[in-house]
User: Fold this.
Amino acid sequence: MKFTLAVHDPSDAHAPGFASAALDAGHEIDLVFFYHDGVLAADRPDDGNTPNRGPQAEWLRLHEEHGLPMAVCIGAAARRHLVDESSPGTSERIQPGFDVVGLGQLIGSVVDSDRLITFAG
Assistant:
């Protein structure tokens, strides 16, 4: 089965746990889309030396080990001052491994997937 995941809460530990279990069971994850406060999961620590912990560390591990595609909504990220909406792309505040995209990316993934699963905390 192919899933699209929508993450609305950056501290929800169930979302990366589900993603890991699904991948281990042989399912495919087309996209993990971080929306609303979920975009904060992509925020880079200010000092650059703080290790990633909790769900953020799990997302980065899944990205590294499985090539998990992770997208951050540009509008939600701009409202939380992580990116400048007038110049799309990555930002110094966004962790490597997360792509900054528009809602069209989510819609396209939902069309290509069997299921959309939302984690809203």
